[in-house]
Amino acid sequence: MDIVLLLICMISFLAAYSVVVVDSMHFFQLNSYDSPTHLKWIKKNARKYTPVLVTFAAGLGLFCLSVNIFFIGISLLFILNILLLRPKKAKKPLVYTNRVKRMLIGIGFLILILFIFLYHFQSIKASALIVLVLYLFSPFIVLLINLINMPIEKSINQHYINEARKILNSAKGLTIIGITGSYGKTSMKYFLTTLLKAKYNVLMTPESYNTPMGIVKTIRGSLNAMHEIFVCEMGAKKVGEIKEICDIVHPDHGIITSIGPQHLETFKSLENVKKTKFELADSLPENGMMFINGDDGNIADYPINRPFIRYSINGKGDYHAYDIKLSDRGTTFRVQAPGGDICDFRTKLIGAHNVLNITGAIAAANSMGIPLHDLKAQVKKIEGVPHRLQLMNKGGHLIIDDSYNSNPVGVMAALETLSLFDGFKIIVTPGMVELGDKQDEYNFEFAGKAASVCDYVIILGQTNNKSLSAGLAAAGYPDSKIYPAGTIQDAFHHINIINSEGRKKIILIENDLPDNF
User: Which pLDDT tens digit goes with each residue over 276-285?
Assistant: First the structure.
């Protein structure tokens, strides 16, 4: 009877253990496979694993009774855990990459070895106790297997990096432009690629592929002999990560779009952000062109030990935009180049920050031999980047989708854009994250600005509810115009019943927190 109960217990354990492991793997992936970050996440979200802790504690209590009672009770608890911890519908589900598959195989191999050991151990009581302890530490198993697999992963990554380097070395005449910044780098990448296509065959890193291995994957899978320019977005969350990318691709020219308080949880300080972004400038050859945002104080204050070209909308650049006229239909502006040439431009995009990024793209494209006049048609072709102040008409509402990775500067630009529209202005936001010990402060300031622009505020979730609510209260914003929503579906259901006093509803969706928040 003990053996039958043991088998039932083992089967229910394996099922419950698999649920916890797959769930942990999902969040480990969302945390960029970074063990320190994932440990902090587990500590912050310890309540999530309450069923595991309760099962362990209850199992110890049952263990003190009889073996049969233990097997029956713990099996029922494992089944209950499966129901409580089963994966929820995710915004970004677990992607079964080769790395994830290797980790899961490694975990399975470890469990198999343990079961073989327990079989030869031939102590049912001791085996039951070991299984109980193993389940207690199930949320941490991905960290252990990641440590074990680290030499393998490094070897595989290095192989791919070497392969990418060979491809780049064989691409004679290829010009590589690196783009980095705390914000605006993805928009700049799209804008510049559109402009350069007036003369060149261009490859850019797709979507938000801005990590070393994402860039390597682009090179290995997409770069061919026909490409003349490779526009490479470079992201970072720690000091040294831009240099790591530069050591792979060796950029010829570079653009720094902005420097600000983003990813402070990992960067620790604004000075570290500055140092990291300027790793791009330090990596350029002597004849490389460096383009910088002349309106960014953090860039202007940094000692630049090489020639550079500024772009600006405030008259502080070699290329500067002026006579900017914004409307809800688009933007017109003029750009003056260093030689005195002036050209009028029109874009369907809205917002002064878009003009700034387009001006930077114009500066780089013009410096690479495309006349200003030839860029007029290309500027008209520029499309909004998905989820970055993207305009959509849905259900009779005008939606401004700015749901990608908000930051202190970006949220203010989004609110400035919202203020251009005539209508009943609603903001839906969970606030900003990854700002370290400054997170509450920045969200408080964000809410205060929102109070001056918006007719209604919907706060998503609990992550920043207190700081956002405090910011609104400090600005004297009425409680009757604030709604705490659990989900985006809840938010839009509420939007449909808001009395907009006959005005069209203009809805700004500001940020969309990933599942690990």
Answer: 999 999 999 9
E strands present in 388-447: 390-394, 397-402, 424-429
Q: What is the pTM of this model?
A: 0.80
The enclosing domain of 372 has a CATH number of 3.40.1190.10
Examine the domain organization and report whether 290 and 336 are in the same domain: yes
- Residue 491 domain flag: yes
For the stretch 191-224, pLDDT in tens is: 999 999 999 999 999 987 899 999 999 999 999 9
Please check whether residue 165 lies inside any domain of the structure: no
Looking at the structure, tell me whether residues 251 and 374 fall in a common domain: yes
Q: What is the DSSP string of 213-271?
A: HHHHHHHHHH--TT--EEEEE---SSTTHHHHHHHHH--SEEEE----S-SHHHH-SHH
Q: Determine contact, residues 404/388, Cβ cutoff 8 Å.
A: yes
CATH number reported for the structural domain that contains residue 399 in this entry? 3.90.190.20
| Rounded Cα gap, residues 472 and 466, in angstroms | 10
Task: Give the range of the structural domain holding residue 75, as residue numbers without chain letter.
Answer: 2-150
| Same-domain status, 397 and 350 | no
Average pLDDT, the chain: 87
CA angle 204, 367, 248 (to 5 degrees): 40
State how many domains the chain has: 3
**Are the C-beta atoms of 21 and 111 separated by less than 8 Å?**
no
Structure tokens at 393: 């008409």
Q: Which residues contact 15 (CB under 8 A, 6 or more apart)?
A: 78, 79, 82
- In which residue are the tokens 């990418």 written? 164
Q: Is the pLDDT of residue 38 over 50?
A: yes
Q: What is the rounded distance in angstroms from the CA atom of residue 131 to the CA atom of residue 245?
A: 43
